[in-house]
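Lecture notes, part 5. Sequence design as translation. It can be helpful to think of inverse folding as translation between two languages: the language of shapes and the language of residues. The source text, in structure tokens, appears below.
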């Protein structure tokens, strides 16, 4: 089976030839996209070479995604650690700068 046969579409009057009439076309028109995918997968089941090649491609893509995640994970952790330590350092600096202002406001209120 070649790719042209896999993606071959039915002719528009196909259902009318089998006695389904217009009722079938109107009633099931919203399923047209789903039916195309079902038809594609039914055709795909009979094409073993295509199934094997798609399976191999899926496994290769999965391995690449996992490898990229493993390579990116340590820099992300290091970046989060840097953000956490500088945030704490930054928060301490803000509190040191705000303390005299808070003491001034406390003394002005009449304590």
């Amino acid at each position: 089976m070649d790719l042209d046969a896999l993606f071959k579409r039915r002719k528009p009057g196909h259902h009318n030839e089998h006695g389904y009439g217009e009722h079938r076309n109107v009633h099931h028109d919203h399923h047209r996209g789903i039916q195309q995918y079902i038809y594609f997968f039914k055709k795909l089941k009979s094409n073993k070479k295509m199934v094997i090649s798609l399976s191999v491609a899926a496994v290769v893509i999965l391995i690449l995604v996992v490898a990229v995640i493993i390579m990116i994970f340590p820099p992300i952790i290091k970046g989060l650690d840097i953000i956490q330590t500088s945030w704490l350092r930054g928060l301490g600096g803000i509190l040191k700068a705000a303390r005299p202002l808070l003491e001034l406001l406390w003394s002005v209120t009449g304590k």
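The translated text above is only one of many valid answers, since several sequences can fold into similar shapes. The first helix runs from residue 3 to 6.
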